[in-house]
Amino acid sequence: MTCEEARQYLWREPFQPVRIRLKDGRSFDIRHRGMTLAAEAVLIVGIPPKDDPNAWYSDRTVWVRWPEVDAIEPLPEPAMPTT
Predict the structure, then answer these.
(1) Of all helices (H) and strands (E), which one includes residue 61?
(2) Helix H segments across the chain?
(3) N or C: which end of the chain has fewer CB within 10 A?
(4) Count of alpha carbons within 13 Å of 25, Cβ hemisphere only?
């Protein structure tokens, strides 16, 4: 995956949460636009705190080189509660 391909997902309007899959088997769910930075050589992924996976801020970051990214795919939308 290239930086430009990733930006098509990450900068989409309106933002749609995505899952970033790496070739080593790791994956990162991105629920907010500000949790990634798609630079030319690397993708910086913000990791939210373990006790608040929906946080708008990161507890730490992971730097990933583009050749390590296998895919970016939309996250499934949560099921609506039935009444």
Answers:
(1) strand 60-65
(2) 3-10
(3) C
(4) 0
> Is 25 a domain residue?
yes
Q: Are 37 and 43 in contact (CB under 8 A)?
A: yes
- Ramachandran class of 34: left when φ > 0, alpha when ψ lies in -120 to 50, beta otherwise: alpha
Residue 70 C-beta-side C-alpha neighbours within 13 Å: 9
pLDDT tens, position by position, 45-63: 999 999 998 899 999 999 9
Which domain range does residue 60 map to? 3-74
Decide: pTM greater than 0.90: no
**Number of domains forming the structure of the chain:** 1
User: Which CATH number fits the domain that encloses residue 10?
Assistant: 2.30.30.100
Structural domain includes residue 82: no
Residues 10 and 80: their CA atoms lie apart, in Å, by 24
